[in-house]
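seq:
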Amino acid sequence: MKNMKKIILFILIFLSVNVFTEKITFILDSPEASTVFLRTDINKFKPIKLEKSISGLWKTTLEATPGNYLYIYYIDGIRTKDYKNNEFDYYNDEFYNIRKIEKTYYPIIGDNKIKYLKHENERFYINPVNENLVYLRVKVSKNDIKDLNIQSNADILSKKIYEIDNEIVYEFKLKIKSNELKYRFLIYDGGEIIYGYNKSDEFYTLNMNRPKISYFDTPSWAKGEIIYQIFPDRFRNFINTNDDFDAPNWYGEYNKDELMFKSFGGDLKGIENSLDYLSDLGIKGIYLNPIFSANSTHKYNTKDYFKIDPSFGTEKDFEDLLEKSHNKDLKIIIDGVFNHTGIDFFAMKENFEKQENSKYLDWYYIKNFPIKENPNSYESWQNYASLPKLNIDNKEVKSYISRVLAYWTSMGIDGWRLDAVDQIPNYFWNDYFYHYVKQLNSDLLITGEYWKNSKNYFEYPSFDSVMNYLFKDAVVNYSKGGSANELVNDLQYYLNRYPQQVLNTLWNLLGSHDTRRIFTELDEDIEKLKIAVGIQMTFIGSPVIYYGDEIGMTGENDPFCRKPFIWDEKTWNKQINDYYKKLIKFRNQNDALKYGDIKFLEAKIGTVVYERSFKDEKVIVLINNKKISPKINLKLDGVYTDLISEKKYEHVEKVNSNTIMILYK
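struct:
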């Protein structure tokens, strides 16, 4: 007891003699100054010398108790006020600026105070899908409040809570019942705090006829459907008359130069005559790498945007492919390359020929004359002289692109996949491209190629979807042995940041023409591949199959990932092919997998459990990528069957090593 009294006495003495201080930094932008001093009543106006940084900023950091303080600068001995601060006062008839030091607020649950609430005029916070559906989000500091709800004249369909960067996000899905949405937030933290417009108890209002953030939804046909990517030169050769005379052997040994530079003869008629195969596989859309006229195997160096490359066929062949694909309810998405052209594109060709007298100099970014095929002469994609960069700000260039878009739309395409979108300013996509394409056909799918966080591309928006390399990286890392928490965190990184309406249209790929093939990436380990493909086919988004992955094709990075499709079924990996077909069929039969929400239920060591649900339908996926099987306690709401093993479960206590379970009723 005596010791306890001593401790209490010590604490009281400590608190009585120690006043907690806050750090405050004074910064002055005066790069030409030789010396800068600060005088402030924090230290009774004793001069303090500021230190100059490399950038020319003068700084000093002091400590003081919360309150208002006077200060003034002396620059090279001349008394100078802080012109960036409008707060001032006079002391002894002299001018001083005022600096306010506030007490740091440390969030505490239940103190009936909130540090902040963020609800801003951005799509992340206010996300109108259409006149009947809106998503609203708010952010608060972690460990600051007990709960938060919304009060509104709309029906609340769902509420989600998750964490982003040490902040808690509350997300509400609202069904709108009137032309004007009214809402405010109710915060519970020891009491009820009403948080409305301008931090008052007034309701926020949103005019649903003209919302401050534009309506944004994605084509319904693209939600959750499976896309099949085809590299045309390497998929199927049907017409030999358009082949190069020295085309390599389709089934032969491949060397790097042949794969990089030689045409193997794949054509549009080859794709057309494979539609039964693709339809039977269960895919719903075909994405074609560039098909426009170009002097390369990859066709990303466009020569003529209005012509099909002769090695692939004719415009009539493409029209036939569109018609027969649509008859089988298959969509066709083509590749659009608008960042750069080839050097034999008519405008660049004239620049080479006429130099300073060319009419098309401003179509590109010319650096100097004479213009030569050299990156020092003009800007180009990643300094490849063969890919000169277009000046998309030029009105004639934009007019040309508009004609290209209108031409192929009139032919009946179903979407665009856009190359190298980060090389073009966002305003091109936001202000022009997206709106122009949607005016031509609102049901066209627009997918951008971007390898990182794509949140900004959905703000205005720019695209309906992106090639979701964030998904690929997360799933490949996990399939190789990464932890369950890594997988969940990596996937939730984009799930929690993107608008809800794009999640079902994201192109969830495992490989492409720019990466190693997935079977090669996973060391040709079938169990690892089954985990990766199992996640791909059960996750929220649109699975994208790179041609040949479904038969176990292998290949290192470009150009070895672009080997010809082997049509000899005796060479196919039947185990892989059967697995793909089984999962594709199951996905196509389950709306929960195509359209449903996702909820993670477990992440422990190597075991991940998530649920997909839509209306009354539910699918539960359990995966374990480790040799050990940690105990879980998953009680099911009835009897479920595992698609893979065909066993029945009412309760799951563990997932076997290197196994995926797909449970359904």
